[in-house]
Amino acid sequence: MSDDQLLQLLTARLQSADEEFLGRLRTALSPPATSAAVAPNEAPPARRSQRIRNRSGSSSSSHDSPGHSRHGRHRRHSRRCSRSSRCSRRSRSSRWRSPSTSEWSSGESGRRSIRMRPEPPPSRSLSLVHCEVPPVVVPPPPPTIPSGLGVSVPPARGGRPWPFMPGSHLGHSGQQLMALISSSVTPPTWQRHGKAWEDWVRLAVPRDVSSSAEVRLHVTIDFLLQLRDKGVSSIVAQRSLSGVAFFLKLNGWEDSTKHFAIRQALKGWKKHHIRKESRRPVSYSLLNKLVSACPSVCSSPYESTLFSACFCTAFFGALRVGELLPPSKHKPGGLLYEDVVVANDVLRIRVRSSKTDQFGRGAWLPIRQVQGSLCPVQQVSDYLALRPAGSHFFVHVDSTPVTQFQFLSVFRRCLSAVGAPPDQFATHSFRIGAATEAARAGLSEAEVQRIGRWRSACFAGYIRPDLLL
Q1: Strand, coil or helix: what is 270?
Q2: Confidence at residue 171, expressed as pLDDT on a 0 to 100 scale
Q3: Any residues with CB less than 8 A from the CB of 86 and at least 6 apart, and which?
Q4: Kindly report the CA angle at 106 between 100 and 112, in degrees rounded to 5?
Q5: H helices then E strands: how many in the chain?
Q6: How would DSSP label each residue in 234-273?
Q7: Which pLDDT belongs to residue 283?
């Protein structure tokens, strides 16, 4: 077989192999059979095969030329190899392009153009066996506040917290408001309210008090009967019911303490259990004895002068012990040094806050001179001549403030020294004695109210001439 025949045979086999390869490539890269659209600027398959056939035919015709030599065949073979290497380089570089690009990149010779095809969409006829379905994550439902959620009652003055309320319409923010709500009343009142509410909750534990107002009324009746069995006075029972009413309203419930049966029971309680106040007032004569007993009771002359000034200021100013002295060394309260001014034979005292002045507006109380050794202006002046430095007004030698407990302790020791029963007196006896002595002196009711800063007729309960010693 001659070289020309062998070349023609190889060319025919290459042509058939190219057509088979192009057919497979078209089958793999062509879109689904349902879409017959052809990409723009792309020749149909028939034309592409024809173009390749013509190219191979031209090459075959060149091989059939009579002047063909072995060196020419070698040059043509090298050109084909270089062309294939360039195409392979272009194909390798095009792999790094985005598969979604629609740009056309031309070869150096301009004979062949390459277009990056997008990735074919996934077939919808895939079997579920080969598909990994991610687990469906169901988001948790939003938190709901149950109707029985309660808020804790903060303690007063560092005590233990009261139990949780059985229900509250304040929601999860109610706990943040409790500090402000507890500040709306005085600490002793808040303490009494919390104790009464604790007893009410203890009776309501086995019952569903949030279900109806009738259940809460039955619990309130049991609470009132429990107070009667304890033998408390009607005034204590009324204060306890006020504490229960406070927290019932805070829960958004109807106030069962205002029920007709509860109110009538309290009226009958007051008639059958009449209890007189047992605290005796400090009279002017008893105050004189107390001041005279201070040197024998106190440990030093300075302490004697200190407590004599305390007794006279509490009596003539009709002060509560919380307005006069702090509850302890580390807690605020009482008179400060700048709250007391002595000028022009007048003692002026500023009361920053009180039971009837919850917002701290303050008030200046003028105390004038009186005849005798009990003159408050003279007693305070003598104390100021010996007083050391300190933020509080009434302080010891070491500048620590005089506390309410120390005041009551020295007061009872002085009472024992003069022969008076200490258990019948309290720190409030100085305020009661000021009202009683003012009424005995013939002052009007308006004057008595002004002295004690009373705003209602409750001052009448402080006038107790029958309990004087």
Answers
A1: helix
A2: 60
A3: 107, 108
A4: 105
A5: 15, 7
A6: HHHHHHHHHHHHHHHHHTT---GGGSHHHHHHHHHHHHHS
A7: 94
pTM of the model: 0.54
**In angstroms, rounded to a whole number, what is the distance separating the alpha carbons of residues 136 and 370?**
90
Counting beta carbons within 10 angstroms of the beta carbon of residue 149, is it exposed (0 to 12), middle (13 to 18) or buried (19 or more)?
middle
User: With pLDDT > 70 as the criterion, what percentage of the chain qualifies?
Assistant: 62
Return phi, psi of residue 195, to 5°.
-65, -40
How many whole angstroms separate alpha carbon 63 and alpha carbon 7?
A: 8
Class of the CATH domain delimited by 152-272: mainly alpha
CA distances to 27, 69, 326 from 73, rounded to whole Å, are 34, 7, 119
Q: What are the boundaries of each domain within the chain?
A: 152-272, 284-336+368-467
CATH architecture type of domain 284-336+368-467 = Orthogonal Bundle (1.10)
Q: Give the residues across from 162 on adjacent strands.
A: 153
| Assigned token pair, 339 | 């709250």
39-84 pLDDT per residue, tens: 444 444 444 444 444 444 444 444 444 444 445 555 555 555 555 5
* pLDDT the model gives residue 184: 80
The region of weakest confidence among 286-295, 326-335, 384-393 is 326-335
pLDDT by residue (tens digit) across 330-371? 888 899 999 999 988 899 999 887 777 666 678 889 999 888
Alpha-carbon distances of 26 from 135, 162, 245, 340, rounded to whole Å? 38, 84, 89, 107
Rounded CA separation 282/316 (Å): 11
pLDDT at 32: 53
Residue 183: DSSP 8-state: T
Phi, psi for residue 306 in degrees, rounded to 5:
-60, -50
Q: Phi and psi at residue 104, in whole multiples of 5°?
A: -110, 130
- Any bridge partners for residue 357, and if so which? 354
User: Buried (b) or exposed (e) across 406-440, using 16+ Cβ within 10 A?
Assistant: bbbebbbbbbeeeebeeeebbbebbbbbbbbbbbe
Residue 107 identity (one-letter amino acid): G
Where is mean pLDDT largest: 16-20, 363-367, 380-384? 380-384
Pairing between strand 363-368 and 162-164? unpaired
